[in-house]
Design a protein that fits this description.
Chain A: This is ABC-type glycerol-3-phosphate transport system substrate-binding protein. The complex is a heterodimer. Chain A is α/β, with parallel strands linked by helices. Chain A contains 19 helices and 16 strands. Chain A is 45% helix and 16% strand. A 6-stranded mixed β-sheet of chain A has the order 2-1-3-14-6-15. Classes of the chains: A alpha/beta, B mainly alpha. Chains A and B meet through helix 1, strand 2, helix 3, helix 11 and helix 12 of A and helix 2, helix 4, helix 6, helix 7 and helix 10 of B.
Chain lengths: 438, 272
């Protein structure tokens, strides 16, 4: 009896595995066989919010209905591990045809020849609808001495402040507009004013502080890197120190920021925010979606425009769609991207992800400029986005993980001084970059 | 007095072990709004089922669970089939070569698996095994085998050589003594090793991510990760609902095999 059971299990397993084999049999890289049917493209999407997945799938369906000769297969990936997945796919010569990623990841892939240079391959309408600063976020060295465009930028994120309206009204503070934003000084004063009766003016969730600080650093002209031809070095001068010092002051001098929020991820302070423990949360524009979904009934909140230092500029990266250099059908893949990222579709994708479209036409869509849920403020903030200087730095990822993250965490935890932090960022950082500068 | 304290300690231990499942269930039944409360509740105030509906409607949970099950069971069976004779040989025939083999098995555990992913991917691709469950099974067996060999070798050594010698004196051949004498005594070890192989394969993510590109062949860990977003933001409700469902097949598997494991252990104890 036992033998028979074991044999039955083995038979079922064999059948299941065979089914697994056969189900995958016709879906190799590059997709379909031109001689036997329509071209098949694989589209690796990183959409993860419910509305965003729905928008992505809907657009793929629309394309497939209108283009029976080029069928797109939607493959959902995940931000957590997309780059591991892509590196092995590229190395193994089996990448998806159309790839969703973000601009910082493209530089390395471009220099290794994994992505197709889209220069001159995109329709003029799409090219002119996206402003140059956004294209700058996807223009990289090709590893052979030239430069190319390795993706189409379509979603961007700015840093805004999400605030408890009742607390702001009670403190009688000026509500800023995109035309008249708060300065960092004004913001510090308001944070102090809001700090009373067990409420902190602000919670800075700085579990992953580097990109946030570097993007905001541009408010005072802080670039953190200088480049001399092809060589990059770390720079932490007065401009770079401004934002670091101001956040630190809020935590330990003004005591208007809650130090216990420091170790939190971006969305972690939200329960405290709803409970009135914090009046303001500096965050990416996408966090509005969580607030809409989770805030208790009657909770009033507003989106505060980006702060102004010497400028309102913020470093930006962008979400992108690229074509794999190994794609068997690059022309069809490019056409699909042009359709997928036209202005109407960008508005849908931006709404789904609660981010900002790069398309100027999409940004003027009424749904992107409504006052509801702070869309008007969020969309207006796109004008101050410029290419993040670190995008151009070969070795930034290693500098970020090995040097900048632990150093900034120590600094914000008040374990080292700003001078010590600056010295480490520069000295240790340059050691890391030296290897990449060769 | 001593017995109630023992029961109390046991109860505490059970509660400790049950905590993740209870928390998962509680989270799966909460709305996003309730999850965002500053004071977490054990029992959802307004239980909802929409997280389960979302999890099922957005991802192929049942299909991916079945595929994970197929790979994990196949991995367990193949691991045992390969490791059992090999570990017997390693344990019983002590020589320079077998010592070297044992050492190599240990050394192979030292390499970070990320180092071998790309060459492995290329080998699988040349064999036409990328995007297939047999391909992933082969990888999982390769990944589990060294430790399984190490485990089983210990169990084989624990079986006294004298038992086999006594069987030989009684006229039993090598195969007969292996099947009738050694195998029953090794049963608990085999079951424990199979469990280890099953759990390792069931939870494995990195190799599956690399080998399986097609959504039609995705295993459960690959499907679960789709509920996570950028910057560590997670759709906790559907993820908890999906994770709860994901535990069911392994719980059933454990329930089935537990009795066998227990009886095997008993048998080993008496005969040893």
């Amino acid at each position: 009896m036992r033998t028979r059971t074991a044999l039955a299990v083995a038979a079922v397993m064999t059948a299941a595995l065979t089914a697994g084999c056969s189900s995958a049999g016709g879906t190799g890289a590059g997709g379909g066989d031109q001689a036997s049917g329509p071209v098949s493209l694989k589209f690796l999407s990183l959409a993860w919010q419910k509305e965003s997945i729905a928008a992505n799938k809907q657009l793929v369906d629309e394309w497939n209905k209108a283009n029976p000769d080029t069928q797109v297969e939607y493959v959902q990936g995940s931000w957590d591990n997309v780059n591991d997945q892509l590196v092995t796919s590229f190395e193994g010569g089996d990448p998806p045809d159309v790839i969703h990623d973000d601009s910082p990841a493209l530089a390395g892939f471009a220099s290794r020849g994994y992505l197709m240079d889209l220069t001159g391959k995109l329709p003029a309408e799409l090219k002119s609808d996206i402003p140059q600063p956004a294209w700058d976020t996807v223009t990289f060295a090709d590893g052979k001495g030239g430069q190319g465009v390795y993706g189409v930028p379509f979603l961007q994120e700015s840093q805004v402040i999400i605030a408890n309206k009742k607390l702001l009204d009670a403190a009688k503070v000026r509500i800023p507009t995109p035309e008249a934003p708060w300065t960092w000084d004004e913001y510090a004063e308001i944070s102090k004013k809001l700090t009373k009766d067990g409420v902190f003016g602000v919670a800075w969730p700085l579990k992953a502080p580097v990109n946030k600080v570097l993007n905001l650093g541009l408010n005072f002209g802080g670039t953190f890197f200088t480049t001399d031809g092809t060589k990059a070095t770390v720079k932490v001068g007065p401009e770079e120190r401004e934002v670091l010092q101001r956040i630190h002051d809020q935590l330990y001098k003004d005591k208007s920021a809650d130090p216990s929020a420091l170790g939190m991820g971006t969305a972690d302070p939200l329960p405290g925010f709803y409970a009135g423990k914090y009046a303001m949360l500096p965050a990416g524009v996408y966090l509005r979606q969580q607030v809409v979904e989770q805030a208790p009934p009657g909770f009033e909140w507003i989106t505060i425009p980006p702060l102004k230092g010497t400028t309102s500029e913020q470093g930006a990266t962008s979400q992108t769609l690229s074509v794999a250099a190994d794609s068997a059908y690059p022309d069809q893949a490019t056409k699909f991207i042009a359709f997928f990222l036209n202005s109407t579709n960008q508005a849908k994708l931006a709404k789904g992800d609660w981010l900002l479209p790069t398309s100027m036409k999409a940004a003027s869509d009424p749904s992107m400029t409504t006052t509801e849920n702070g869309w008007d403020v969020a969309t207006a903030s796109a004008k101050d986005l410029v290419v993040a200087p670190y995008l151009r730095v070969n070795g930034f990822d290693e500098w970020k993980s090995k040097v900048a993250t632990p150093t900034l965490q120590q600094y914000f935890a008040d374990k080292i001084t700003l001078d010590q932090a600056a010295e480490t960022l520069v000295a240790e950082g340059n050691k890391v970059l030296e290897r990449y500068n060769k | 007095m001593r017995r109630p304290l023992q029961y109390l300690a046991l109860l505490g231990y059970v509660i400790f072990l049950a905590f993740p499942i209870v928390w998962l269930l509680s989270t799966a039944l909460k709305s996003s709004r309730e999850m965002a409360s500053l004071v977490p509740t054990w029992i959802p105030r307004h239980p909802i089922l929409s997280n389960f509906a979302d999890a099922f409607s957005e991802q192929d949970l049942v299909g991916s669970a079945l595929r994970s099950l197929a790979v994990a069971v196949a991995c367990s069976v193949l691991t045992i089939v390969i490791a059992l004779p090999a570990s017997y040989a390693m344990a019983r025939h002590r020589s320079l070569i077998s010592r070297f083999a044992v050492g190599w098995v240990l050394v192979s555990q030292v390499f970070p698996f990320i180092l071998i992913i790309i060459p492995l991917f290329m080998v699988l691709r040349s064999l036409g095994l990328v995007n297939t469950l047999p391909g992933l099974t082969v990888v999982h067996v390769t990944f589990v085998l060294p430790f399984a060999l190490w485990m089983l070798q210990g169990y084989v050594r624990a079986v006294p050589r004298e038992l086999e010698e006594a069987a030989a004196v009684d006229g039993a051949g090598r195969i007969r003594s292996l099947v009738k004498i050694v195998a029953p005594l090794l049963a608990p070890g085999v079951v424990a090793t199979a469990l280890f192989a099953f759990i390792s394969s069931w939870n494995e993510f990195l190799f599956a991510l690399v080998v399986l590109k097609d959504p039609d062949v995705a295993t459960l860990p690959l499907t679960l990760v789709k509920f996570t977003g950028a910057e560590g933001v997670v759709r906790l409700g559907p993820l908890a609902a999906a994770s709860l469902l994901a535990t069911i097949p392994s719980l059933v598997f454990f329930a089935i095999i537990q009795r066998r494991l227990r009886s095997g252990l008993m048998a080993g104890a008496v005969k040893g």
